[in-house]
Protein: DUF397 domain-containing protein
Organism: Actinomadura namibiensis
Amino acid sequence: MDLSKAKWRKSSLSSDSGDACIEVAADASVAGIRDSKDPDRGAILLNRTEARALAARIKNS
């Protein structure tokens, strides 16, 4: 995934100050997760199956 042109999103529940937020971006096969405070540090890349499993685990915790 070429992250340089990715459209990164964060939760609408996040504060405008940007504290402690993660951002996500995805294409047809890969999802990226990064720290909104330090976006140049890089991202964790997950395939779609891994991303769905992570989202389900977060929702159920």
